[in-house]
Amino acid sequence: MPSTESAARRFQDRAVLWSMGEISAADVVTAACDALVAGLDSPALQILAACTRAEAGYDVPDLLPPALDELGLTFYTVGSVAGQEAAARALAARMLADELTPRELAFRIHQRFGHELPLAERLAELDDEYDVLEYSDRTPAQVDADVTAEALRLAQHPRVSAELADGRT
To answer: Of the candidates 87, 11, 81, which has an alpha carbon nearest to the alpha carbon of residue 42?
Structure first.
């Protein structure tokens, strides 16, 4: 069973991925269930976990912020720099957990943020490198290794505290 700290991090990551449009509301409900199983608990988390897949799209927007708040986690506002950085870190964590390939990570970061998010700029550049591999002296494995190294850097990047997240846009 995962620690409550890692469960909280995974729940936080799923919340930010939902707020940035990367995963569905039903995935957030599943994450809430996983968080309960891992030992996190709060009244709002229980209510969120009890949603059906059909209810998720309607209820998650109202239930997720209080569930995060009760757990001492941050709800990132859509479009905030802190939210974008948290989403980039969450996507990197998904790649490191073998939920995405290096190519998929670079593509999603580039597609979602372009070259406008300094924290993830290198991944956007690496996505460009995938596109021109046939004209370069690099191999896909070399670019994959660079993406993996960048994902590790993002995953280890300090997370923004709730106080900072509230003040950044």
So the answer is: 11
CA distance 42 to 32: 10
**What torsion do the CA atoms of 129, 133, 137, 140 make, to the nearest 10 degrees?**
90
> In this structure, what DSSP letter does residue 71 have?
T
Question: Residue 78's pLDDT band (boundaries 50, 70, 90)?
Answer: confident
φ/ψ of 22, rounded to 5, equals: -85, -30
Model confidence pTM above 0.90: no
DSSP string, 110-153: HHHHTT--GGGHHHHHHHHHHHTGGGSS--HHHHHHHHHHHHHH
CA 16 to chain centre: 5
